[in-house]
Write a sequence for this structure.
């Protein structure tokens, strides 16, 4: 009987221990979350971005169809029927502006994630191994950094065709060098720390040290870098579609809309200005999140 | 009152105290919580007096200094009390007056000289700025005054120093510049906050001498803040001991250190290894428990939780600062017994010292303090019983390591050979940059030696850890210096130990948990701390976990690189005891690196002394610390500020700065600074390795008998020529 009792005891102890550890972790996370929620910058940024995410998904439930044309109501100025006016095909600008968030909000986050993934791997390897590996990788990164983002992406898109997937991959690839630099410098700060030496002394493989020892300690710079890149990715995606390298008409995408409607800028400025403001507000929202995060992290 | 009036008051009328802190209460506000840091601190420094404030980390020492100069950080507030400097209430000064006052009447020297100097300005411009700003001098005049002030702090070649940037100076020279800047304004009050912490022993001694020498000339009152009791004993007339924001004892330095009347002072004095003490003599005394966290509520006497003589009355009400010798404490205890218990509140009017006596102690039982029970752990097996004779466990032969720094080549370890017996502790001493840590890392494989061999238990070790077998890694482990970075902050303590056990002990998963529990029990970390991340552990606990990690695979050699240097005295003692105890139970050998000679003497069986990448002396701890020994060792030993008031060695000053590793001096590497310099022989020829007695060798031209005679002649008993 006694042995069974001992086993049970140690099991319950283990369970209690695990529960306590989980509680402790949750307490620390809760502190960060509370600090973020107390930062007005962060909260406003999140509200703006959430607004556009919501619109990107559900806008058609509230507005008219962004594609519906009203041939008898073209280029009408804002009114009770059409709050943001109508465009040259009589489409509701409000509906198009709200729905236009969708493509940017698909492209930008995915491209950013790709850049974080690739840049993370490159930065970890360069920063961890240093020496000749680092030299070679970072010189290549310098070369990539010297390429002008827009021109390069236009060339690649012209070469491979302009699908959404390719746009994502191209933006992700072009942002990789910058990300890898940030992550490399964070890794260099960590690799000389004694816990990394201790890991080497117990014979851990390099991959383990990079992924399990170092990576968890550089999440904050990675998150901040990610939000910075996200802002730029929104910009780049809009620019590419403005230049005709995104979706084609009749998509309500902001960049595309600004490009096609700009001929009416003087006579019907609402057709261009509302999507332009929408784009600007999304970028501002992302940047506010970045500022909020970095100020909470740096405390 | 205008500045002129107060000046007049200070000189003509009854002289006001240089610093008069009355019932000062300071609270920090952090994460929405109020943390009281100073609770009714009262102290008094007369003009020209040196007052030492001692205490361990987090007791409020620096906060007191900051509050005194009105430099408190934004989240700290003075809730009550007053700070009067030369009779003026600091809190009433306007911003402008404050700035002027800081420039003219008070000065502060901080712990880290590197951060006190602007890295982008030449030394001359920085020092001259003080004169230009505060005295309105022209640039040329100011530079001239700067030159003078550098000469005053005995910086060699002031003209060259003026043109240098801070990074071109050594730590000791930087601290001299900072002191020169502080003295430039002829302050009436000089605050020194850990002025020598982080500096090497010989440099510390130089700075100490400088301050002592300057005291005769500048007539400034000094507030010296430090955890180093020896430093205070050396410099100060009066001492205050701070614990958890309270002055617990105060009095003249000599009396307080020779006859402490508060259990905390007694504990502090007992737990630092006395010089010359060895682990075979006795285990170190410790102070049980841990330092209270900032703002932690403490019942009754702040020290009662850790006090070996605490009685129920101690937690009933807090004792006042009673005059000693007197029976005030006994009366206080009787009063406390009579009054209703009120462990939390304390009465502000009692914060001040009771009575005008020279000595005070915040204890009901000051009379019993000399008989305070000893708090040393019982060490099981006798240390003598260890079989330290059975052959060499480690043999290092002609190890060499050079680093490249731009075009320069810095040889950090030059031709070092040594061997280590089974179960032995080999202490490695030397100043920073002497190559101790590089040598240690060559042994563990964290740094690859360029040439030379490391043989462990008869097997040749690969030069890097990555190429060593798992067996070899398990056998040689390391304990690092910095408790804050030695553990992965993202992992729980249990995860850290579990991983080490998995990798090093290779146990089946069933027994891993048991092994982790045993390890943590061995290093006396309570199981509940295993759930925490390192950030929630104290420095001592982190270091214990780091030790447990090193012992996960039952190592046979553990390299300890300053394992206790970053810890408070009371914690340091328990870590050293733990290492000694583990050595007995696990029969492991140590390489023990430390700059603290008393600690090395305590823990080591044999000692090696390194200077400029070379091992210049090896011998038993006893032999190395007594003549005949290398002149460098002699100088090093003379530089430690000791608590001993009666037997002070005459300090041997080392000339000049440590030469660069890229261009070590010819002949004997120590000849540029040696006080027993013989002349051309030392400059031209590399000294032979001489044997004083079997097993004790040193690298010097002077033969053992001559060296012994010369060194005995210079002992303090006989008159010493400067």
């Amino acid at each position: 009987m006694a042995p069974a009792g001992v086993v049970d005891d140690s099991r319950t102890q283990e369970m209690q221990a695990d529960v306590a550890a989980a509680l402790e972790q949750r307490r620390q996370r809760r502190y960060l979350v509370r600090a973020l929620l107390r930062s007005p910058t962060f909260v406003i940024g999140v509200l703006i971005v959430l607004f556009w995410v919501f619109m990107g998904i559900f806008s058609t439930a509230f507005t008219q169809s962004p594609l519906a044309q009203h041939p008898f109501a073209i280029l009408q100025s804002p009114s009770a029927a059409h709050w943001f006016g109508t465009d040259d095909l009589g489409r509701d600008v409000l509906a198009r502006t709200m729905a236009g968030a969708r493509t940017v909000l698909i492209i930008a986050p995915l491209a950013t994630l790709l850049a974080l993934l690739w840049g993370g791997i490159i930065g970890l390897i360069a920063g961890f191994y240093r020496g000749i590996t680092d030299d070679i990788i970072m010189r290549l990164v310098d070369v990539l950094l010297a390429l002008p983002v827009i021109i390069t992406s236009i060339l690649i898109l012209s070469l491979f065709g302009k699908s959404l997937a390719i746009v994502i991959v191209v933006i992700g690839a072009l942002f990789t060098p910058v990300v890898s630099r940030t992550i490399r410098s964070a890794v260099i700060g960590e690799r000389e720390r004694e816990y990394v030496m201790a890991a080497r002394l117990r014979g851990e493989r390099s991959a383990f040290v990079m992924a399990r020892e170092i990576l968890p300690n550089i999440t904050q710079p990675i998150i901040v870098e990610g939000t910075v890149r996200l802002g730029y990715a929104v910009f780049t995606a809009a620019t590419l579609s403005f230049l005709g390298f995104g979706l084609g008409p009749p998509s309500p995408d902001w960049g595309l809309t600004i490009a096609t409607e700009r001929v009416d800028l003087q006579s019907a400025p609402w057709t261009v200005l509302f999507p332009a403001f929408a784009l600007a507000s999304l970028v501002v929202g992302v940047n506010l999140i970045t500022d909020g995060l970095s100020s909470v992290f740096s405390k | 009152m205008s500045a002129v009036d107060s000046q007049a008051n200070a000189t003509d009328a009854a002289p006001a105290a240089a610093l008069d802190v009355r019932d000062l209460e300071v609270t920090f506000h952090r994460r929405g919580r109020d943390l009281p840091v100073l609770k009714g601190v009262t102290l008094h420094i007369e003009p020209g007096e040196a007052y030492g404030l001692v205490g361990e980390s987090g007791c409020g020492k620096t906060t007191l200094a900051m509050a005194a100069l009105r430099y408190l950080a934004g989240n700290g507030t003075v809730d009550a009390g007053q700070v009067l400097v030369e009779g003026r209430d600091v809190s009433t000064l306007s911003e402008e007056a404050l700035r002027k006052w800081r420039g003219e009447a008070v000065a502060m020297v901080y712990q880290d000289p590197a951060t006190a100097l602007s890295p982008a300005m030449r030394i001359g411009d920085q020092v001259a700025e003080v004169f230009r700003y505060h005295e309105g001098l022209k640039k040329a005049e100011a530079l001239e005054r700067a030159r003078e002030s550098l000469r005053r702090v005995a910086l060699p070649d002031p003209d060259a120093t003026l043109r240098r940037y801070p990074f071109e100076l050594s730590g000791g020279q930087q601290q001299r510049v900072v002191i020169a800047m502080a003295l430039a304004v002829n302050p009436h009050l000089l605050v020194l906050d850990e002025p020598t912490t982080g500096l090497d022993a010989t440099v510390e001694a130089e700075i100490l001498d400088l301050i002592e020498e300057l005291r005769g000339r500048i007539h400034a009152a000094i507030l010296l803040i430090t955890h180093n009791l020896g430093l205070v004993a050396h410099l100060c007339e009066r001492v205050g001991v701070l614990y958890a924001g309270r002055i617990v004892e105060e009095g003249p330095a000599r009396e307080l250190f020779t006859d402490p009347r508060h259990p905390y002072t007694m504990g502090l004095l007992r737990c630092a290894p006395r010089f010359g003490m060895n682990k075979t003599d006795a285990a170190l005394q410790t102070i049980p428990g841990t330092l209270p966290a900032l703002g932690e509520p403490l019942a009754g006497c702040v020290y009662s939780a850790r006090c070996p003589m605490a009685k129920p009355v101690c937690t009933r009400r807090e004792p006042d600062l009673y005059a000693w010798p007197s029976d005030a404490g006994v009366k206080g205890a009787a009063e406390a017994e009579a009054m209703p218990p009120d462990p939390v509140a304390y009465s502000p009017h009692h914060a001040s010292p009771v009575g005008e006596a020279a000595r005070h102690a915040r204890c009901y039982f000051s009379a019993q303090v000399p008989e305070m029970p000893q708090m040393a752990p019982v060490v099981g097996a006798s240390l003598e019983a260890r079989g330290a004779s059975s052959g060499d466990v480690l043999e290092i032969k002609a190890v060499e390591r050079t680093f490249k720094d731009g075009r320069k080549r810095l040889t950090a370890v030059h031709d070092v050979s040594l061997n280590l017996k089974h179960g032995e502790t080999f202490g490695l001493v030397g100043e920073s940059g002497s190559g101790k840590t590089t040598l240690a890392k060559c042994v563990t494989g964290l740094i690859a030696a360029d040439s030379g061999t490391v043989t462990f238990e008869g097997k040749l070790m690969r030069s890097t850890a990555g190429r060593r077998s798992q067996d070899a890694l398990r056998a040689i482990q390391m304990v690092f210096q910095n408790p804050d970075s030695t553990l992965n902050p993202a992992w729980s303590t249990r995860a850290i130990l579990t991983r080490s056990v998995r990798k090093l002990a290779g146990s089946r998963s069933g027994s891993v948990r048991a092994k982790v529990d045993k390890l943590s029990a061995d290093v006396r970390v309570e199981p509940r701390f295993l759930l925490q991340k390192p950030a929630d552990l104290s420095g001592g606990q982190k270091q214990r976990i780091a030790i447990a990690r090193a012992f996960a695979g039952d190592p046979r050699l553990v390299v300890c690189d300053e394992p206790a240097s970053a810890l408070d005295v009371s914690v340091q003692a328990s870590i050293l005891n733990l290492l000694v105890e583990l050595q007995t139970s696990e029969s492991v050998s140590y390489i023990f690196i430390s700059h603290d000679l008393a600690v090395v003497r305590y823990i080591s069986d044999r000692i090696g002394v390194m200077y400029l990448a070379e091992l210049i002396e090896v011998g038993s701890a006893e032999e190395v610390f007594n003549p005949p020994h290398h002149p460098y060792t002699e100088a090093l030993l003379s530089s430690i500020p000791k608590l001993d008031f009666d037997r002070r060695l005459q300090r041997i000053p080392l000339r000049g700065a440590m030469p660069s590793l890229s261009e070590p001096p010819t002949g004997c590497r120590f000849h540029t600074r040696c006080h027993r310099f013989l002349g051309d022989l030392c400059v031209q020829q590399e000294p032979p390795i001489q044997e004083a007695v079997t097993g004790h060798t040193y690298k010097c031209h002077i033969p053992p008998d001559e060296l012994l005679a010369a060194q005995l002649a210079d002992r303090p008993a006989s008159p010493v020529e400067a």
Notes: The domain at 6-297 of chain A is CATH 1.10.3720.10 (MetI-like fold).
